[in-house]
Amino acid sequence: MNQSSWLAGDLGSLIGVVVSGLVIYAALMLFTRLVGLRSFSKMSGFDFAITVALGSVIASTLLNDKPPLVTGIVGLAVLYGIQYKIARLRRSWPAFARLIDNEPLLLMAGERILDDHLTMARVTRDDLRAKLRLAGVTHPSQVLAVVMETTGDVAVIERRESVDPDLFSGVRGRELLAGVLAEQPTFDARRQTSRSA
Length: 197
Known about the structure:
The protein has 197 residues and is an alpha+beta fold. The chain has two domains: 3-99, no CATH class; 105-196, 2-Layer Sandwich (CRO Repressor), CATH 3.30.240.20. It has helices at residues 3-8, 11-35, 45-63, 69-92, 94-100, 115-121, 125-134, 178-183, 189-196, and strands at 105-109, 112-113, 143-148, 154-158. It has a four-stranded antiparallel beta sheet. A hairpin with a 5-residue loop joins strand 3 and strand 4 (154-158). Helix 3 (45-63) runs antiparallel to helix 4. The longest helix has 25 residues, at 11-35. The chain is elongated and about 65 Å long. The termini are far apart. Residues 93-161 form the YetF C-terminal domain. This is Membrane protein.
């Protein structure tokens, strides 16, 4: 292979990539409209896995002759179909959702770092500190809770105003927040609603 063909490629291949790109993009938009907004969300670890798989199918279809374009479109349809069906099953049967989703895990309760939970999540104290910095936390006393979500994202909840304890429903280790939540002002949903209106 000479260097100029390696850099440029042949015209037929370039046209093939352009046509494949346009068709795959159109198919992607169509499937996204049919399946709905959840298509690219990271609501669960499963959604994230599907998004990665979609990217892989798109890249393979664009840059290789195999799989052919039609096979790539069928692959997209199958992945979107799986995601749609799994999302419906998760809504209908909470037991199914618990089976396929990780449970959110409490990493900090107030200023207290929960080392055993960090170990379960395979997160180091340095990782946790980095997430606190990214959230704009300047002192541990600002922290109400840190939760590793089912997607692997880390949510930092600061001690700003009262927080509804129901926010931590389904979080493993939420009982460790009892003392921290008791220190905050009483949550009044009516007051919060009128303030946001």
